[in-house]
Amino acid sequence: MGVVTVRVLIADDQELVRTGLRVILGAQPGIEVVAEAADGAEAVEMARDLRPDVSLLDIRMPGMDGLAATRALAGPGVADPLAVVVMTTFDLDEYVYEALRSGARGFLLKNAGPALFAEAVHAAARGDALIDPAVTVRLIGVFADAPRSGHAPPSPASPLTGREEQVLAALARGLGNPEIGHELHLSLSTVKTHVGSIMSKLGARNRVELAIWAHERDRAGRGVVEK
Asked: Which of 7, 14, 74, 143 is deepest in the core (most CB within 10 A)?
């Protein structure tokens, strides 16, 4: 069985950056860059037409920026959302939070390096999420310390089990399914089953939404099964 190729759209207003990313990603196994856009509006139009597996969007672009483009392609009101990974030169907490809130499945700094870019693209294509390790630890602190909004996050349709709480806490720390399985001594298929159950109970569309919910409800630190 051949390797499945992930089709990627790149959007950045700097031609040099787009060229660099095309070269970097094109050299990675299983990734093909199928389109380039110079601004958010063009990226949205191309993405809706081509339906790439992953759209890699810069935050700062003229006209429609990357956050607005992310909301248009993957936001809460989008019926058939596309996978989006947001990238930026600027390591700002508000960018990270807003990108994830807008529906992004990943957040990278532009200096992340070829391996991390490839990992983020593959993760987004399979429905997982990857946040640049350079910002993950601080991001968790932002979620923990940020003042709560006027409305509480929705409660699950049915209570999470103790094991689901453990899986959710590990997921909110940025662990992938294999790492969660290793930490909790679970098979990969069992982890996937738990993640799917949690998503169903919370009405979440992806792992990023689960992580945000966990931090808003102070569930990210739970590691002990509750009776």
From this structure: 74
**Which phi and psi angles does 54 have, rounded to 5°?**
-145, 135
Per-residue pLDDT of the chain (227 residues; tens, 9 = 90+): 456 899 999 999 999 999 999 999 999 989 999 999 999 999 999 999 999 999 999 999 999 999 999 999 998 889 899 999 999 887 666 787 788 888 898 888 888 889 889 989 998 998 877 777 666 655 555 554 555 444 445 678 788 999 999 999 888 777 778 888 999 999 988 998 998 899 889 887 667 677 778 877 776 655 433 32
Q: Torsion angle of alpha carbons 108, 60, 32, 29, nearest 10°? A: -20
Give the pTM: 0.68
Indicate the burial class of 170 (C-beta count within 10 angstroms; 0-12, 13-18, 19 or more). buried
